[in-house]
Amino acid sequence: MQFFTPRSINALGLLLAAVLLGGCSPSAQEDGTQRDAAARDFERALQEQLIAAKPGEVIEIPAGRYAFERSLSLRVDGVTIRGAGMDQTVLSFKGQKSGAEGLLVNASDFTLENLAIEDTRGDGVKVNEGTRITLRGLRVEWTRGPDTRNGAYGLYPVRTRDVLIEDCLVIGASDAGIYVGQSEDIIVRRNRARRNVAGIEIENSRRADVYDNEVTENTGGILVFNMPNLPQRGEGTRLFRNRIIANNTANFGAKGTPVASVPAGSGVVINSNDQVEIFDNDFTDNATAHVIISSYFSTGYMTDQGVAENFDPYPEAIHVHGNRFIGGGDSPDGLDLKALKLAMFGLGGRFPSVLWDGYLDTAKLRGGRLPPELALCVRDAGPVLNADGPGKYRKPSLATEPHDCRLASLSAVDLQR
Amino acid sequence: MIRSCGRFLGVALLATVMLLASCSREPRAPTFHAEGEPPTLAEWGVLHIDDGVLAPAAGVRVYELNTPLFSDYAEKLRTVWVPPGQSAKYTANATFEFPLGTIVSKTFYYPRSAPVGTTATDAIAARLELAAVRLIETRLLVRREAGWEALSYVWDDTQRVATLRRAGEIIPLEIVTASANGARTQRFDYVVPDINQCAGCHETEVKRKALSPIGLAARHLNRDLDYGTAMGPANQLMAWSEAGLLTGLPQAASLASQSAVSGTVSGMVSGAIPRAARWDDPAADLEARARAYLDINCAHCHNRAGPADTSGLSLDAAEGSSVALGVCKSPIAAGRGTGNRRFGIVPGYPEESILVYRMAAVDPQVMMPELGRTLAHAEGVGLISAWIAAWPGDAGCALSARRTPPAIH
Fold it and tell me: How many domains does the structure of chain A reveal?
């Protein structure tokens, strides 16, 4: 089905005639671009089509640049929105006046593909509740580059199940380029994430496979987090065959957000999450550390009043093996880490590939160690730097033997597509 | 006071064209359309214009809320019509159950001369002199077979015709608001929601994907309304019950006994009728006023089953957990909405609380609510700030000492 239905062409014709009679001139946008009657009509016609869509409908947006003043939204199941390519069909929200995202979807069996969304005031695409979500071949970009004023998330499925994000490019998000929150059964593959605070973030989610992505020039490459006070705790994420390169952009996230605590130069950061397997990735030149394993205590947000009693802040059953590490660890971010590096490795030295903040759930220790199924296993990566967070970073140490262990491999996520 | 800022000639012309095309057949009585989307408001027969006055049709009941949603200082004429012989069913906490065919309307308007926001909440107009007000839009919620459906009609420049706007509208306006420092002129874009955005607020349970009225619940309606000289002021719920519009209302005695009680958890005694405080009633309890304000302005999304359950922040009247209210709670996905602040509510410190920052914001990325306003509600921000400033007990959000584990050596 084409974008303009016969019905909307009629309505559009009438409106155009009326506008011409009225002799309205184009109005100037804040950014100086002209937004004429045709742009307003296109915006209105597209939103009307999204409202009236029927399950199974394919809404095609032809090549072109389209300017929007308000966010678009879809609530009908089974709809596909398709452009002519991520560089051909561009939805620009540079003059956006209303709405906290570019496109808000509350629907299942949804596919969005082959178009670009630029310069939204808030998030690019948010999918809130839904099953069988496909985001494919999209570009989401803030064209001014890394900037705290940019929207938070590029692609943002939350409380979704059966989610596929592939072949997308996300640039400039002030929080995470690709953010999957409180979801289940997730594949994120063959995407590129550049110059975001977090390239890809999996948060409070279960069963996620993140592979064949290229994450470069973010503050942190890939984050696997658990946050407190949410109905769903996350576990079971596999990161493999990703290229995680030079994620050294200064953190431009707003203070108070979870990602604001991520040091620049982080390849992969695990925070408070369990059952994470990291293998067969290429890590290059991440200046703080290629892999950081940390607890909620290290975020600075742990309060007595504000964290639910049952929240488990400890990362457990972490399995890092068979990765390739080049460079990195030579210029950590933040005074504490700089001082730590200087004290332990000297001016010209570097951190090892894997840094752990040292927090352990003492209630679970047996003979001073976590039970084998909850262990932090790190192989093929040299020694692990234990930063001694619980001891206020006074006795950091290097260890290999305690981490020389194996965990059962996690099973693959199969979405049958 | 209000002025429009031009550029809507085209739309006015379009409305005229559509009016001519549709051959006016306006019903004089409320008319339920079981399906379809009538292109003009008039076809519903709920509101009529006669001799320069907009008034509800016979049998259509005007109502008012204790604490209303803030909508860019617009004033609102609210009506409900239930098909003859039918009635709504009372429930203590949820929206009343309305029968098939119910039509709820809300007309947004501004006074043309007096500063906006100065009309006393107990002086609600049941009819609008069009010379004195500028009509903006009328939103309908209609109870059809499949559930509630939302429609929004925008009034034209002649103030005679309201036309369906499925995709919404942006209307440049200029209003004069009153404040302690005198009158202040504000120019802004009034945003008429598109039909999906109606669901953005009225879909209060995100998994059910069903729309529902928000204000038509006991705690919001439990107040007096001046029904005119014949009847005088009367409690709305009692009046509805006596008129046969509402069934299942508990004994009248409990109405009176609840009249001074706040709408917060303590007010929701079993068997009694809940009553939300009036947000602007200086005689009411500060906590009750603040919770009533958050309830009506935020809880349609921020409840434990609502679209904003992703945030872990729940602000409805019944919420009993201080963490869920945001106390010392770090945000989940606020992005720049944090305003560089760390916690939702920092007891004693409104200037450090994200809640206040987002209420005072007008940037679409930052502001809360996300929909329904373009301007900040200075008086609402003031109320929530005062509530946080007066927080009882320990102030601030200390990082945990109790829960930090010991060093392992």
Answer: 1
Q: Determine, yes or no, domain membership for A347.
A: yes
The answer to whether A256 contacts B354, with C-beta atoms less than 8 Å apart, is yes
Task: Please list every residue in chain A whose beta carbon sits closer than 8 Å to the beta carbon of residue B147.
Answer: none
Does the residue B290 lie in any domain?
yes
Cβ neighbours for A224, distance < 8 A, ≥ 6 positions apart: A201, A202, A203, A208, A234, A237, A239, A268, A269, A270, A271, A273, A276
Closest by Cβ to B322, choosing from A69, A175, A305: A305
Residue A60: inside a domain: no
B86 exposure class (CB count in 10 Å sphere: 0-12, 13-18, 19+): middle
Domain containing A396: what range?
A: 142-403
CA distance B44 to B67: 28
Task: Kindly give the confidence (pLDDT) of every residue in chain B, 409 residues in length, as a single tens digit, with 9 standing for 90 and above.
Answer: 676 654 443 344 444 444 444 445 677 899 999 999 999 999 999 999 999 999 999 999 999 999 999 999 999 999 999 999 999 999 999 999 999 999 999 999 999 987 776 665 555 567 899 999 999 999 999 999 999 999 999 999 999 999 999 999 999 999 998 877 778 899 999 999 999 999 989 998 888 889 999 999 999 999 999 887 677 789 999 999 999 999 999 975 455 444 434 433 333 444 589 999 999 999 999 999 999 999 999 999 999 999 999 999 999 999 999 999 999 999 999 988 999 999 999 999 999 999 999 999 999 999 999 999 999 999 999 999 999 999 987 788 987 765 666 665 5
Contact residues, B window 56-75, toward A, CB-based 8 Å cutoff: none
Helix B9-22 to helix A6-22 angle (10° resolution) is 130
Report the alpha-carbon distance of residue A283 to residue A262 in Å, rounded.
17
Region of A378 on the Ramachandran plot (φ > 0 left; ψ -120 to 50 alpha; else beta): beta
- The C-alpha of B165 sits at a distance from chain A's nearest C-alpha, in angstroms, of 9
Give residue B190's domain range: 2-242
A299 closest CA partner among A356, A338, A260, A244: A260
A179 touches chain B (CB under 8 A): yes
Chain A contact probe: residue of B330, B352, B367 with most A CBs at under 10 A: B330
Same domain flag for B220 and B342 = no
d(CA B358, CA B368): 5
Name B188's bridge partners.
Answer: B173
Within 10 A of A219 (CB to CB), how many other CB atoms are there?
28
Alpha carbon distance B298, B308 (integer Å): 9
* Predicted ipTM of the assembly: 0.87
Residues 196-225 of B with CB under 8 A from A: 196-197, 199-200, 203, 206-207, 209
Report CB contact under 8 Å: A301, B330: yes
Residues from chain B contacting residue A306 (CB–CB below 8 Å): 323, 327-330, 343-344, 397
